[in-house]
TrEMBL record, chain A:
Native source organism of the sequence: uncultured Actinomycetospora sp
PROSITE patterns recorded: ABC_TRANSPORTER_1 (PS00211), ABC_TRANSPORTER_2 (PS50893)
Single biological process term from Gene Ontology: carbohydrate transport
An MF annotation (GO) of this entry: ATP hydrolysis activity
GO CC annotations on file: ATP-binding cassette (ABC) transporter complex, substrate-binding subunit-containing
Domain ABC transporter: 4-236
Name of protein: Glycerol-3-phosphate ABC transporter, ATP-binding protein UgpC
Gene3D superfamilies in the record: 2.40.50.100, Nucleic acid-binding proteins, P-loop containing nucleotide triphosphate hydrolases
Keyword terms of this UniProt record: ATP-binding, Nucleotide-binding, Transport
Record bears the keyword Nucleotide-binding: yes
TrEMBL record, chain B:
Main location group: membrane
One GO CC annotation: plasma membrane
Protein name: Various polyols ABC transporter, permease protein 1
Family per similarity comment: Belongs to the binding-protein-dependent transport system permease family.
Length: 365, 314
C-alpha cells in the first residue's frame, strides 16, 4: 500500500521543445484508483511510464511511499503494470506468464504455483493455465495480464489503457471487474485511458491532462459539475457540453435573440469582458413549446436526432444564426425529425462560464 | 443413371458441355506455366536421369571403349571407399561447424547492433561487407593476405606471441577453410537475427523490466525463444548454401593435404574431372543427392512448422 506523488515531474524528449509532461503535480492517496485521462498526445501515458521507470524523469521528482524513485530502475520500484497490448510472453504458458515476476524475484516453485493458482481462480483462468497466449481470446489475454500484475502484490498497479483492445460489451464488463478487484485489494492504482466514460466510472479521482499539463484533478462529480476550464468542460461528458462564445449584454449574455441572465457572482467575476464562453450541458436545456413567445425561447432547427431509448439527443442549429450548433437532451420518445423547428431555453442555474482567451472558469470563487 | 439421362436429354447435354468447357478452361489456365515446367524438367530431371544411368556404368574417360554396364558395383565401391567416408565427415563438420559458429557470432553482433551507439551505421556497413565479396575473392584473400605463413596478417599479428611461421593452411586445412566460410556467412546470420530482434515487441521487454527481470533473464527467457525460428531459418539456409561449397575449397586448399579439407562437391569434382571416372563420380553424386534430400526435407519441415505462426501474437 502506498502513496504516489508526482512533484513537478517533467519529461522533455527534445531539449528546448515543449515537454511531453510539463511540471505535473499529483498525489495518489493510499488505496485510491486515480485515472489519468486526456486526448492523444496529452502526456498521460508518458506520465504513467515515468512512474513505471520506463521513461526518465527529466525534472522534478516522483515518490512512491515517500521514496524518491527518479534513479530507481523499474524492477526495484515495487510496481506492476498492465500494458495496452497486454505484453504477454508468447513463448510461455498462461501459468508461466503469471509466475514470471515471481520467478524473477527468486520465489520458490511451490509458492509460485500457489499464488498463480489463487490469482487464476480469482480471474476465472484456472482451465487456461496450460495454454499459450496465442490460444486465448482478447478478454482472456487481458485477464492474464491482470493476473501477472496481481500475483506480485505490488505497492502500486499501473494500467495503460488496458481495455482499449476489447469489444464494447467486454469493456463495460471488465471495467466493473477491475474497479471491484481494485477495491478489494486496496492497492493504489494509476489508470490511463482516453475514454472519459472509463475515467468517470472507475476513478476515485480523475486527472485531466492536455498538452502535457494537468488541467484539473478532482473527483468525477466535481469534474462534471465544476470543470476548471473550457477544455475539461468540453472533454468530460458525452455528448460534449455546448460551448458557445457569446456577447455580453447588460445582465448576462445574448444567444439566439434572447438574453440569458448570469448569476451575480459570475457576472462580477466576468468583470468588463465583452465576450464570454458559456457552457451548457445537453441536459441543461429546457425544451419549450414551439409556439412560445419569441422573447423567452431560442428557436432552432433539428439536424440529427439520436434516440437512445431512455433519452434522446437533438443536434440542431439556431434559426437566427445557422453557424451555431447546439446539442439538446430530450425525453426518450420525441416526435421531432430532421428539419423540424424546436424551441429551447437554457437553465440559467447550471451555466458554466469561461474566459474566452484563457478558458479559465469564472465564478468568483 | 443412364435412364435418368435419357429421360432428360437437355440437362445431360449441358452437364457434358460444362465439363468440356471446364477441361479446356483448366488447360488454358495451366498452359502459361508449361514452359517453366518443361524447362525445369529439362535442366534438372534429365541430367539426374543421365547421372543415374552413368552411375550404373564402368566408364573412365582416359580409357576409350572401356564403357560397360556393371549394375551397382559403383555404389558398392562408394560405400567401401574410406576416402569417401572421410570426405563425407569433412562435409558435415565443415557445413554444420561453419553454420553454427556463424550463427553464434551473428547473434552476438546482432545484439550489439540492436543497441544505440555512435557510429552504428558505419559499423553495420563494415560488418556486412564480407557477405558482399565474391567467394573466390574471399578465399584468395584468406589464403594470401591473411593466412600466408610469411606474408600473412594473422602471423604478423601473432608474431609478438611467438606464433610466426605457422603454416595455417597446411597444418589446419579444414579449420582454415571454415574460418573463411564463417567470415563470409556471419553477416548473413547477423542480418537475419537483427531483423528477428527488431521484430520483438518492445512492450514485452518493458513488461519484463517491470516484472524484475535482469538483462540476462530477458535474453534467456524472452529474446532467445523469440529468436528460435530465426536461428532455425539461418541454420537451414546456411546449411543449404554451405553444403555446396566448392570455390573456397578449390581456391584455398584444393581439398588437401590428401582429402583433409575436401568436401563432397569438391571430391566428386576431383573424381570426375581429374580422375575422369565418370561412373564412380556419378554414383557418389546420386548417393549425395539422396542423403541431401532426406536431410533437407526434415530441415524444411522444421522450418515451416516454426514459421506457421504458432507463437505469433497480434
Amino acid at each position: 500500500m502506498a502513496e504516489v506523488v508526482f512533484d513537478q515531474a517533467s519529461r522533455i524528449y527534445t531539449p528546448g521543445a515543449k515537454p511531453a509532461v510539463d511540471r505535473l503535480d499529483l498525489t495518489v492517496a493510499d488505496g485510491d484508483l486515480v485515472v489519468l485521462v486526456g486526448p492523444s498526445g496529452s502526456g498521460k501515458s508518458t506520465a504513467l511510464r515515468m512512474l513505471a521507470g520506463l521513461e526518465p524523469i527529466d525534472a522534478g521528482s516522483v515518490r512512491i511511499n515517500g521514496r524518491d524513485v527518479v534513479d530507481v530502475p523499474p524492477k526495484d520500484r515495487d510496481i506492476a503494470m498492465v500494458f495496452q497490448n497486454y505484453a504477454l510472453y508468447p513463448s510461455k504458458t498462461v501459468a508461466e506468464n503469471m509466475a514470471f515476476p515471481l520467478k524473477m524475484r527468486g520465489m520458490d516453485k511451490e509458492e509460485r504455483a500457489d499464488r498463480v493458482r489463487q490469482a487464476a481462480e480469482m480471474l476465472g483462468l484456472t482451465e487456461y493455465l496450460d495454454r499459450k497466449p496465442k490460444a486465448l481470446s482478447g478478454g482472456q489475454r487481458q485477464r492474464v495480464a491482470m493476473g501477472r500484475a496481481i500475483v506480485r502484490e505490488p505497492q502500486v498497479f499501473l494500467m495503460d489503457e488496458p481495455l482499449s483492445n476489447l469489444d464494447a460489451k467486454m469493456r463495460v464488463q471488465t471495467r466493473a471487474q477491475i474497479a471491484e478487484m481494485q477495491n478489494r485489494l486496496a492497492v493504489s492504482t494509476v489508470y490511463v485511458t482516453h475514454d472519459q466514460v472509463e475515467a468517470m466510472t472507475m476513478g476515485d479521482k480523475v486527472a485531466v491532462l492536455a498538452d502535457g499539463r494537468l488541467q484539473q484533478y478532482a473527483t468525477p462529480p466535481e469534474l462534471y459539475d465544476r470543470p476548471a476550464n473550457a477544455f475539461v468542460a468540453g472533454f468530460i461528458g458525452s455528448p460534449a457540453m455546448n460551448l458557445l462564445e457569446l456577447p455580453r449584454s447588460s445582465t448576462g449574455v445574448t444567444l439566439g435573440g434572447i438574453e440569458i441572465p448570469l448569476p451575480r457572482d459570475i457576472s462580477d467575476a466576468a468583470g468588463s469582458r465583452d465576450r464570454l464562453t458559456v457552457g451548457i450541458r445537453p441536459e441543461d436545456w429546457v425544451l419549450e413549446s414551439t409556439d412560445s413567445d419569441g422573447g423567452s425561447v431560442i428557436k432552432a432547427v433539428v439536424d440529427v436526432v439520436e434516440e437512445l431509448g431512455s433519452e434522446s439527443y437533438l443536434y440542431a442549429h439556431l434559426a437566427e444564426d445557422t453557424s451555431t450548433s447546439i446539442v439538446v437532451r430530450g425525453p426518450g420518445r420525441v416526435k421531432v425529425r430532421f428539419g423540424d423547428p424546436i424551441a429551447v431555453r437554457p437553465n440559467s442555474d447550471t451555466l458554466h462560464v469561461f474566459d474566452v482567451e484563457s478558458g479559465e472558469r469564472l465564478d468568483g470563487q | 443413371m443412364t435412364a435418368t439421362l435419357e429421360e432428360r436429354p437437355a440437362p445431360a447435354a449441358n452437364v457434358g458441355g460444362a465439363a468440356m468447357i471446364d477441361r479446356a478452361e483448366g488447360w488454358r489456365r495451366r498452359a502459361p506455366l508449361l514452359p517453366a515446367l518443361v524447362f525445369t524438367i529439362v535442366v534438372t530431371q534429365i541430367p539426374f536421369i543421365l547421372t543415374l544411368f552413368y552411375s550404373l556404368q564402368s566408364w573412365n574417360l582416359v580409357r576409350p571403349g572401356s564403357q560397360e554396364f556393371v549394375w551397382f558395383s559403383n555404389y558398392v565401391d562408394v560405400f567401401t571407399d574410406s576416402q569417401f567416408r572421410q570426405v563425407a565427415l569433412n562435409t558435415v563438420v565443415m557445413t554444420l561447424g561453419s553454420v553454427l559458429i556463424a550463427v553464434a557470432l551473428g547473434l552476438l553482433l546482432a545484439l550489439l547492433l540492436n543497441r544505440q551507439f555512435l557510429g552504428r551505421g558505419v559499423v553495420r556497413t563494415l560488418l556486412i561487407t564480407p557477405f558482399l565479396i565474391t567467394p573466390v575473392a574471399a578465399a584468395l584473400l584468406w589464403r594470401t593476405v591473411l593466412l600466408d605463413p610469411t606474408l600473412g596478417l594473422v602471423n604478423f599479428v601473432l608474431s609478438p606471441f611467438g606464433a610466426s611461421g605457422t603454416e595455417w593452411i597446411s597444418q589446419f586445412p579444414l579449420a582454415s577453410v571454415m574460418a573463411a566460410l564463417v567470415w563470409q556467412w556471419t553477416p548473413f546470420m547477423m542480418l537475419l537475427l537483427l531483423a528477428g530482434l527488431q521484430s520483438q515487441p518492445s512492450d514485452q521487454l518493458e513488461a519484463a523490466r517491470v516484472d524484475g527481470a535482469s538483462a540476462w533473464s530477458v535474453f534467456r527467457e524472452l529474446t532467445l525463444p523469440h529468436l528460435r525460428r530465426f536461428i532455425e531459418l539461418g541454420v537451414v539456409l546456411g546449411t543449404i548454401y554451405l553444403v555446396n561449397t566448392f570455390d573456397t575449397v578449390y581456391m584455398m586448399t584444393q581439398g588437401g593435404p590428401g582429402v583433409a579439407s575436401a568436401n563432397l562437391p569438391f571430391y566428386i569434382y576431383q573424381r570426375a574431372f581429374l580422375g575422369f571416372d565418370i561412373g564412380q563420380s556419378a554414383a557418389m553424386g546420386v548417393v549425395v543427392v539422396i542423403i541431401t534430400l532426406i536431410a533437407a526435407s526434415f530441415a524444411l519441415r522444421l522450418l515451416f512448422r516454426s514459421f506457421s505462426g504458432e507463437e505469433e501474437l497480434t
